[in-house]
C-alpha cells in the first residue's frame, strides 16, 4: 500500500451497518507506521445464515425425509 491518508471502512457479514459506520476513520500510512490498531467488530445477535433463493423465495425442501445431502 502506498503512503498517504486513507478512509478506513469496516465490513462484516454478521454485523449491523450502523455499528460498522461507527468504526470508519481516516488513517495515515507511512513507511514506518502501517498499524491500524485493534478494531473491535460487534456481531449482530440476530444474524442468521438463512436466506432466500435468487428469486427472493424460500428454498423448496427435499421431497423425502430420508434425503441425504451430497
What does this protein structure show overall?
- This protein is mainly beta.
- It has a domain at 1-47.
- Helices cover 7% and strands 14% of the residues.
- It contains one helix and two strands.
- The protein has one helix at 17-21, and strands at 4-8, 25-29.
- It has a two-stranded antiparallel sheet.
- The protein is elongated and about 60 Å long.
- The relative contact order is 0.22.
- The mean pLDDT is 86.
Summarize the topology.
Blueprint: E1 4-8, H1 17-21, E2 25-29
Antiparallel strand pairs: 1-2
Tags for this model:
single chain, 70 residues, mainly beta, two-stranded antiparallel sheet
